[in-house]
Amino acid sequence: MIDNKLDVSNDDLLEAIEQLSMLSKPRNSGGFSTTINTTTTLPIITTVVTATTPKRINSEHNNAKSNEAKADKERKESEEEDRKKYIEFLQNEKQHILGNMDGLKRSVADIETQEEEINRELELEAALLSAEYESESLKLEQEEGERTRVQTKIGELEEDMVESNASQAHLQAEAKQRVIEAQHACADLEEELADAKGRDDERDSDLVDKLAAQTEILETERKAFEDLEFHHLEEEASKLATREELQRYISELSAKIENRKIQLDQLDSQRSDIKNAVKKEAKSLERQKLAHLRRLEEGRNRLRAIDDELESLAKNAIDNADVKRSPSREDFDRISRVTTDSPIVNNQGSLGRKTIESLKEIERNRQLHLAKQGSQVISDERRRVEELKRRVQDEVRSQWEERKMNCTSFNSVESGEESSSYSIGPTESGSGSSDGADNGTNEKLSPGKLSEFTTPSPGPSGNSYTLLQTDNVRDGRPTSMETERFNGNGSGIADDSGSRPLSQTSSELDSLGSLQVKHRDKPKLQRPLTRYLPIKSESLDLRHHIETAGHQLPLIHDVTVDTTSCGGYLSKMSKKFHHWNKRWFVFDRKRKTLTYFSDNNSRKPRGVIYFQSIEEVYIDHMNAVKSPQPSLTFIVKTTTRPYHFMAPSAEAMRVWVDVIFTGAEGYHEFDPNL
């Protein structure tokens, strides 16, 4: 009987009380007042109350109870399903955002590495251009000095020619004068000999001797004049030839000087162009970096909003429980007020007292039952939360052990120093999957609210949902990041490698759930031998693996290979200016990196290539780039760009190709898990 009374609804109680109240009121018929005699109606009322009313109340109560139980069950199931969907949606969104934020951090680190490499290449190129410019300037100064010296020599030669011409003209004039005088003397002697001919033989003989001597003197002077004139002409011709040769040399020097000036202008222009190009590329990288940082900030804001939403869901669940209990208290107050104020109380008969006592007993038992039921609901919820936490922890622990056994790596992106130097800041990601599960189990969500949060842009930021659709496309190779659905009890860590998380974001990502990389469908090809696929196992003996591949490592002095690493010199082609620079490379399977330094004594790396980004390693048979030794050139293709290397020997090149391909974790063509 008590159980039946406890199952009576508040409305049924109120209706029963009102009907009992109506039975005790007087009736008016035909304008005359007819008072019901208490002594005559008490048996009838007693019979009605004791027989008819409980049956009707129990019948109506059973129907109402069944309908109310069904409606309440359906409502609870709907709210529970909506709450789970909403919690799952928030956790999936948080997982997507964390994954994309991790990719953005890697992109920012790559951009900073590119900026440093560009600055180093700019410094190197500027140093080369400056040295060449200084060398050309020095040659230009020397040539200009030589031209000035030759011009001075030509001037001196011309002055000497003028002086020589003047002196020669004077000497020739004197010689000519002597010749003329000798001619006059000969003419006088001839006239005197002609006048004195036949008069005195002795005098004639003397005049003939004088004439012969004077004639000889004339010939001597004439010959001296001719020799002087010839010598002057010969000397003048020699000086003219020398001057012409010097002038031709000056012309050649002038042409060289002009070419040198043009070359210097070209070097200056090239240096300016390189600076402008580097500045332009630096600005482009800076814009990309700022865009990534802006998206990171949006992701952090969205994560904070999601955490606040989960926390508010947990608080609202408790508040809703209090609100659900308050209507029952109001109903109890109404019942007490009705039973207290009812006219039945004024009746001193046994019917009123029994009814009131019965109703009060129903009310007390109902209050006890509801209180007990409320505490039972709270304890059930707490037990479910504890069970959910325990199951999540067991799942996390089991999957973490599976990760360590599989020895595979998905999120091994940043090394210790790299993650600290390239860290953008801590990710405000809030709680992990366990907290999300706690919040989710304490909340009941209406279908309207669920539809509100399933729009493409949930949360306070209108465009934050774009983080869910970040396309990790690099160098034309699209990949899609898809998350696995959370199971009904929460989520655990996926089956990645046992390597430690390298950033706060990646650790939070691991705590939320698993990431699965799915590539586009590719045509099925014949799977190559296991030796020619990447090897992710940490127990691999690298030296034994390379020796069993047929390489005679003791005879190859350009490469040093041990159980976990490989080192040696390689020539690397720069990205910007396509220069070949000799670098010391270290392949480390523990760090899962291919790092290169300036030399083997340097400790600061010039660049890092992660195993996860290495897609292919192959020899450059097509001569894709201009190399000093095409037969020694090979290519390491990554998700960002291809790297071109040149080995010192063919044996070293083959060893490097086999070594690097063991770490090509980005090669998924024959991966059975995809």
Automatic annotation (TrEMBL):
It holds the Pfam family PH. Residues 57-80, 472-485 have a biased composition (Basic and acidic residues). Residues 452-471, 500-509 have a biased composition (Polar residues). Signal peptide: none annotated. This is Pleckstrin homology-like domain family B member 1. Residues 243-316, 371-398 form a coiled coil. It comes from the Eukaryota. InterPro entries: PH-like_dom_sf, PH-like_domain, PH_domain. PROSITE patterns: PH_DOMAIN. The keyword Cell membrane does not apply. Residues 409-440 have a biased composition (Low complexity). The gene is LOC105364301. Residues 53-80, 408-525 are annotated as: Disordered. It comes from Ceratosolen solmsi marchali. Residues 563-665 form the PH domain. Keywords: Coiled coil.
